[in-house]
Amino acid sequence: MTLSLCRLSTTLISLLITHTHNNKTATALSIPTTLSYISVLPPQMSWHPTYKSSKFRNVYGKAGNREQCFDGIPITRNVHDNHFCAVNAKFLAIVTETAGGGSFLVIPVNKPGRFDPHHPKVCGHQGGVLDIKWNPFTDNIIASCSEDCSVRIWEIPEGGLRRNMSKAMLELYGHSRRVGLIEWHPTCCGLLFSAGYDFKILIWNLEEGAPVKMIDCHSDVVLCMSFNTDGSLLATSCKDKHLRVIEPRSGRVLQEADCKSHRVNRVVFLGNMKRLATTGVSRWNTRQVALWDQEDLSMPIIEEEIDGLSGLLFPFYDADTHMLYLAGKGDGNIRYYEVSTEKPYLQYLMEFRSPAPQKGLGVMPKHGLDVTTCEVFRFYKLVTLKGLIEPISMIVPRRSETYQEDIYPMTASTEPAVTADEWLSGIDREPVLMSLKAGYKRPCRTAFKAPRKGWKTMVNGLDLLESIPPKTENELLRMFFRQQDELKRLRDELVQKDVRVQQLELELNNLRNAKNM
C-alpha cells in the first residue's frame, strides 16, 4: 500500500511539472482528498490562517432592551458632523432641537425610560449647540460650544437639573466665528481646547477664564482634534486635506501630511503605540481607514477600503484592549478591529448590525462599565427618526464569573496628573491609573474655580474678537450685539467706580474735618 502511494505521488508530481512546462495551469489537476497529506504545492504557500489568535476575536455587541433606552427625546436635526451626545458615569447629555437659540438635555444615566417633554434643559446659548464634552475628571462639569461664537462651562447639580439652567459657570469669548469643536486635555482638569470656523484653536485656562495660547497653523476649518496619552501632542485633521501633528504649547507643526489619495476626515491617537488612525475617502469616493506613524507622515503604514457609502466614519479607540471601532453616520452597523504594531497591523474582528441608522454616538468612560458582564466598551446610539437613545454594550464572552484581569488592565482614572500651570510650564505626566477591580471613589471636589475677573481676549498681542472681520450678516449682528453688551458692562462698571470715588472723597473730607476740630 505504501509503495503504491509513493508511485502515485511521483506520477502526480511529474504531471504537475509537465503541465507547468507547457504553460498550462496546474489547478486542472484533481488531487484525491485521501492523499491530502501529500504536499504537491510550492513551498512558499502556507496553510496558516490570515488572522492571529486574539482574546477579543468573539467580542459581540448587545443592544439594550426597551427598558434600558431613553425614549421620546427631541434630538437635534443639525447637519453638523458631530456626535451631539456626551456620556459619563453619572449623566447623559444630548443636544436637542429647539426653536431659537441652542439647548441640550442632561439626564441621569441610571434613569432610562420615557422622556418628559417638560424636562429642564441647559439653554443659555444664543445659537445652536454644536458640541458638548464632559470633564473627564469631574462628572458634574460639562463644556459646550455654539454658533454664537462662545464656549461655556456648566456645573450640573447632583441628581440632575430641576429647572432650566441659563447661567453658565464660565462664558468664554475668543473666536470671531462659530465654534464647532471642543476637547478637554487628557491629564489636566483646567485646560480646554476649542476650534472655530476662524481656523484657530484656542487653549483656555479655566482657572483664569481666558485663552492662554492660540494655534494658528490651519488654512481651513479644523475637522477633528485628538491627544496622545499624556497630552503632549495634538493631532488634527483639516478641511484643507492636511493631517498635522502639533506641539500644542508652542503651536509648532511637528509632522504634516498632504492627503491627496486619502482625504482625511477624522483622526485618533492609538494610545502609546505611536500610531495614528484616520478615516476618510479615497480618490474613488470609497470610505477608508488608514494607520500612520506619528513620527513620519510621508505615507500611511496601511490603507484599507471599507465600503462605498457616503456617510462620515467616526473612529473610536480603546487603549486598554487595542480595539478600533468604526461607526458611520447614517449607518446601522459598527465594525471593530484589533490594532497591533506588527503585520497585519489592523485585524478585522466582527461587526455589530442594526437596522436603525445612527446620527451620533456617545461613549461611556471605562470606570462606568459593568465589569461583571465582561463589558469592554459601551456606545449610546442616537436614533433621530425614533427620538431614541439606545445603549450598545461590547462584551467579551466568558463563562467564569470572577473578575477578568486580562481584559481589564490598569486604566486612566478620574484624578488629574498635572495642573494647568504645570502643563503650561512644560511638564508632561502620564495619566494616573486605577484598577476597575478594587473600584474607585471619585473626589467630590470641584475641579477648578471660576475666575472673578473679566474675560480676556488678548493672545500674543492680538485681539481675537477683531482679528477676522465678519463675512455674513448674521456674524455681523452677533458681533454688534456682543459689543453692545460689552459697552453696557463697561458703563455699569464706570458708574460703580464713580460712586465709589465719591464715597472715598466724602470719607477723606470727614477725616480732614475731624483733624481740624
Automatic annotation (TrEMBL):
Transmembrane segments: none annotated. The keyword Signal applies. Belongs to the WD repeat coronin family. GO terms for molecular function: actin filament binding. This is Coronin. The keyword Flavoprotein does not apply. Keywords: Actin-binding, Coiled coil, Repeat, Signal, WD repeat. PANTHER family: CORONIN (PTHR10856), CORONIN-2B (PTHR10856:SF17). Residues 1-20 form the signal peptide. Pfam families: DUF1899, WD40, WD40_4. Residues 49-113 form the DUF1899 domain. WD repeats lie at residues 122-164, 172-214, 215-256. It comes from the Eukaryota. Residues 487-514 form a coiled coil.
